[in-house]
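> forwarded from #structure-qc
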């Protein structure tokens, strides 16, 4: 046997059947063909030993079979010339045929043997058959042919050939056949083992190269743990997982950088795998990085060797940094914002739990559907086309947009969409995040409404002092004229009209000031049904004759704690609004009922509290309110009426009343069908009813001889107060500002009462004057008055005084009554 490199350079060629001169027959053509057969046989064996592919083995085998067939025909052409019909020839011909049949039978073996075994059987058969055929049969036939050429007859030549092939030649043939059989099999086995080892080495190298390629530039790193020796190797400098196995589980080891909450689970998972309970070790846990941050790591491993007792001695595995994946998963599943992922065609492929919480849609409802189903009638098709155009142009779009919940409710969102591109720059997906901003929009709406109301309150508060002073002068002097002058009927009518106009002006200022008041002035436990019955005639006068009024008042209506005057004003405002919404004939329905609320129900009041409410509503079948107007309907000076037919303050006053009463107001409207306004006023469990006593009659007024210091910056009002008080016998001192009043208080003069305006020039207001006066004269009685009935929030520290303010414009009877009451206090 000898070896060489095949012509491809891929493996060594060795000869299990090396050619020898003993194989030569003396006939050159036959010997050359025998050499070719032996060479092909050796190639087949070499490919078999080197585990070539079945395709290559079959190719070489087919080549051997084709050449054997060619050789047999060439050989038989020679023999037939000399042997003709001789038994040697016919026997030789049968041998050739049996050879082909045997090889085909071996190759077609259906015993499910591996191809290697089939080819090995064929090589073994070929080696033995070819050696015997060349050394014995062909050599014997060749000797006959050569003898015939020397002049011998066929029979003589056959006898001579048998004689030469017997004796020592026979021993040689048997020895060579035995030797070739044993040698070829051992050589084949050795070469196969060598080839297998080389292939394993090549496969290992290729595997290592593949792993090297995979792990390069990735977050994967490999660790190898020699458990028996306590030695570990890692492609990364820190591999904290295996450290756990070398320390006392109860010890607090600073160098263990696995998150404390994960240590027990990691150690348990490792031990379970080492004990053979799991096929692989896998653990996802947190580790502390050198920069002080926590990262998520996925560790996987497997025990690769154990000792005779089955104890794990070596374990290998990998670490993967999965921080981004884990954080992404945490954000996706726990975000308060809805997340929806679509493909390039905007068909939904994934949603997060927040999407379901906000919209009501589950994944099974919408996966595979186009996001167009989510659209709202709030937007036009052009709006959506513009959004899509911006997204395609810029790869991003954000803004406010309305969506539709599963229950059909339309709600506002703040939407952010981003296009996700592949490496070639083509858009592959879209990711959208949105939040329900209903509460935010309602808060903004309420804030804007409150800001407008505060602005109006500040404006009216600024002018009310002067305006009420003027009204006080008008009404006060009117009272003096009426009380001191004899007038005829015509003059009395004139004076009555002046008084009516003055009182109307006073109520208007009071209504304007309601915007800045945070609390009602007089909260009374009230039965709304009683107020409605009392105001029935006024309501009828406010409604046109062609409009029918329908009452639906529930029996046993709960009580509520409100300011009755505020409610009456709100009622008239709502009745007038309903009247103006009806162009011709129609109806207005007024209802009361008891209601228990357990959820947010109103677009305008998202913070409503659950509980019991007394409900009052007014419904009309008028023109209705447009959807875009509803969001602004309670804003001051916003009106849906024609120019000149409304101030835009009526509904704002209703809203302000509901807010001061700790209640809520709601509106629902359908264009062309009508509108319903509903007040929700908290139920009170107190049973005390308001008094029905008529307090409109003026009390009997008595005067006194005490000294009163009147402080007022409006000269006409100062004189008017002086006249009122002196007419009742009081002695009056006057001052036009706080500085002058303090100068009088510092004098040695008896003063029983300080009567002062709250708002005055000079930097010292009425509250501050009171404090200074009491420091000079402890026990001094003080009565304050103001034309600004909606006392600013900054004056809350004077709450007691605020509750005892004498509001301008005051009547003569109110002034004398308040002064008498204050002087009578102990």
């Amino acid at each position: 046997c000898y070896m060489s490199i095949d012509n491809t350079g891929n493996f060594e060629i060795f000869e299990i059947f090396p050619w020898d001169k003993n194989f030569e027959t003396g006939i050159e053509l036959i010997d050359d063909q025998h050499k070719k057969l032996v060479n092909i046989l050796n190639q087949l064996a070499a490919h078999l030993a080197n585990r070539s592919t079945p395709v290559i083995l079959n190719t070489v085998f087919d080549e051997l079979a084709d050449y054997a067939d060619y050789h047999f025909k060439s050989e038989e052409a020679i023999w037939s010339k000399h042997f003709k019909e001789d038994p040697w020839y016919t026997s030789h011909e049968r041998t050739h045929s049996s050879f082909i049949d045997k090889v085909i039978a071996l190759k077609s073996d259906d015993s499910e043997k591996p191809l290697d075994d089939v080819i090995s059987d064929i090589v073994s058969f070929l080696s033995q058959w070819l050696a015997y055929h060349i050394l014995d049969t062909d050599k014997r036939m060749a000797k006959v042919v050569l003898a015939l050429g020397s002049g011998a007859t066929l029979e003589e030549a056959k006898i001579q050939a048998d004689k030469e092939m017997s004796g020592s030649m026979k021993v040689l043939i048997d020895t060579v056949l035995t030797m070739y059989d044993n040698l070829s099999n051992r050589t084949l086995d050795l070469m196969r083992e060598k080839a297998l080892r080389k292939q394993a080495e090549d496969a290992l190298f290729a595997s290592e190269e593949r792993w090297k390629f995979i792990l390069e530039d990735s977050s994967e790193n490999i660790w190898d743990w020699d458990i028996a020796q306590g030695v570990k190797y890692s492609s990364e400098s820190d591999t904290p997982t295996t450290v756990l196995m070398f320390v006392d589980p109860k010890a607090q080891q600073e160098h263990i950088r696995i998150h404390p909450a994960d240590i027990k689970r990691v150690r348990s998972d490792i031990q379970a795998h080492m004990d053979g309970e799991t096929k692989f070790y896998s653990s996802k846990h947190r580790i502390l990085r050198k920069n002080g941050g926590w990262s998520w790591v996925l560790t996987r491993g497997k025990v690769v060797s154990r000792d005779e007792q089955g104890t794990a001695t070596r374990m290998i595995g990998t670490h993967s940094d999965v921080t981004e994946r884990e954080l992404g998963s945490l954000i996706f599943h726990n975000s308060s914002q809805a997340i929806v992922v679509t493909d390039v065609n905007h068909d939904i492929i994934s949603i997060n739990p927040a999407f379901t919480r906000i919209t009501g849609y589950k994944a099974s409802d919408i996966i595979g559907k186009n996001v167009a189903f989510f659209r709202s009638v709030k937007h036009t098709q052009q709006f959506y086309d513009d959004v899509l155009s911006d997204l395609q142009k810029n790869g991003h779009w954000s803004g406010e947009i309305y969506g539709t919940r599963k229950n059909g409710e339309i709600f506002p969102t703040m939407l952010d969409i981003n296009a996700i591109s592949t490496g070639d720059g083509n858009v592959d997906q879209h990711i959208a995040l949105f939040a329900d901003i209903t509460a935010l929009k309602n808060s903004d709406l309420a804030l804007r409404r409150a800001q407008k109301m505060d602005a109006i309150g500040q404006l009216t508060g600024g002018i009310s002092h002067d305006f009420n002073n003027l009204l006080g002068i008008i009404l006060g002097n009117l009272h003096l004229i009426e009380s001191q002058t004899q007038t005829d009927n015509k003059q009395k009518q004139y004076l009555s009209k002046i008084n009516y106009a003055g009182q109307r002006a006073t109520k208007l200022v009071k209504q304007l000031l309601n915007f800045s008041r945070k609390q009602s002035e007089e909260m009374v436990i009230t039965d709304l049904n009683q107020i409605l019955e009392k105001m029935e005639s006024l309501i009828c006068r406010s409604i046109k004759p062609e409009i029918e009024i329908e009452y639906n008042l529930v029996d046993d209506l709960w009580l509520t704690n409100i300011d009755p005057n505020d409610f009456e004003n709100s009622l008239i405002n709502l009745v007038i609004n309903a009247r103006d919404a009806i162009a011709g004939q129609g109806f207005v329905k007024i209802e009361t009922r008891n209601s228990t609320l357990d959820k947010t129900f109103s677009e305008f009041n998202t913070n409503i509290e659950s509980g019991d409410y007394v409900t009052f509503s007014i419904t009309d079948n008028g023109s209705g309110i447009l959807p875009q107007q509803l969001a602004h309907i309670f804003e001051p000076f916003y009106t849906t009426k024609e120019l000149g037919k409304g101030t835009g303050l009526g509904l704002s006053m209703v809203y302000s009343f509901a807010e001061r009463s700790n209640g809520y107001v709601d509106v629902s409207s359908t264009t062309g069908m009508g509108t319903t306004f509903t007040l929700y006023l908290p139920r009170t469990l107190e049973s005390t009813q308001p008094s029905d006593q008529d307090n409109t009659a003026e009390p009997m007024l008595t005067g006194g001889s005490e000294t009163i210091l009147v402080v007022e910056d409006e000269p006409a009002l100062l004189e008017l107060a002086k006249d009122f008080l002196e007419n009742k016998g009081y002695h009056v001192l006057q001052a036009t500002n706080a500085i002058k009043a303090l100068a009088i208080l510092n004098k040695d003069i008896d003063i029983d009462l300080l009567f002062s305006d709250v708002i005055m020039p000079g930097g010292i207001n009425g509250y501050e004057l009171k404090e200074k006066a009491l420091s000079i004269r402890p026990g001094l009685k003080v009565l304050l008055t103001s034309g600004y009935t909606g006392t600013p929030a900054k004056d809350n520290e004077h709450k007691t005084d605020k509750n005892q303010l004498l509001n301008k414009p005051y009547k003569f009877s109110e002034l004398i009554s308040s002064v008498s009451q204050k002087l009578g206090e102990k």
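QC bot note: The chain is about 45% helix and 20% strand. Residues 168-215 form the longest helix (48 residues).
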